[in-house]
Design goal:
CATH architecture: Beta Barrel
Radius of gyration: 21 Å
Shape: globular
Low-confidence stretches: none
Structural class: mainly beta
Largest sheet: 10 strands, antiparallel, barrel
CATH superfamily: Calycin beta-barrel core domain
Number of domains: 1
Number of strands: 11
Strand order of the largest sheet: 1-3-4-5-6-7-8-9-10-11
Helix content: 10-25%
Strand content: over 45%
CATH topology: Lipocalin
Length: 195
């Protein structure tokens, strides 16, 4: 009787482990180290497909209107999470200022919502950008932000030149009508590994 109970317990554990493995086929695994899109996810989950994987990058930030700081080496990794229903990214920078985002597409609003976090500026409330992939194939995201002089505007993030070789990224302040843009941060990435 004792052996039967142990055998039944082992069988139950085996079935539970097996069911979990089948249930989450889109999570990162040995076969797909960066996960894969869930078949029931919105089609836009593939907007980030060219970014999935790891890139080596150079990050540069503006010191003032005439000067950019020295570049900082970093790796930027994108992967599918939540069983392929969202995208997460993580940057590891040589200056120790690491960051990441969780990216979800909400079909009701037809927009991406990107929640950003950073080791340099921990916060109880995450910053959120929203936007889409445009007709040029760039992913463009916005967040309200006033200029230092109080003028209303956006902080705009743009992923461009996306391919299996890498991508470019720029963060810039823009006027609401986007006729003026002031870049404050640029990142240039080359593919290291990917899906």
């Amino acid at each position: 009787m004792k052996r039967l109970i142990i055998l039944m317990g082992l069988l139950f554990c085996f079935q539970l482990i097996r069911a979990q493995g089948i249930q989450y086929l889109n999570e990162p695994s040995e076969k797909n180290p960066f996960g894969q899109p869930h078949p029931n996810a919105p089609e836009q989950i593939k907007d980030f497909s060219e970014l999935i994987g790891t890139c080596t990058c150079k990050s540069i930030t503006r010191l003032d209107k005439d000067t950019w700081a020295d570049s900082v080496d970093m790796t930027w990794t994108f992967k599918y999470i939540m069983d392929g229903m969202a995208v997460q990214d993580e940057t590891l920078k040589s200056d120790g200022k690491h960051s990441g985002s969780i990216r979800q597409f909400i079909a009701d609003s037809s927009k991406w919502y990107v929640h950003y976090y950073s080791s340099a500026t921990p916060t109880t409330t995450l910053s959120t950008w929203e936007g889409n992939k445009n007709e040029d194939g760039n992913i463009v995201l916005y967040r309200d932000q006033k200029a230092p002089n109080g003028m209303e505007g956006w902080y705009r993030l743009t992923f461009s030149d996306m391919s299996d070789k890498g991508f470019h990224w720029v963060g810039e302040w823009t006027t609401k009508d986007e006729t003026f843009a002031y870049p404050t941060w640029r990142i240039f990435c080359k593919r290291k590994s990917g899906n």
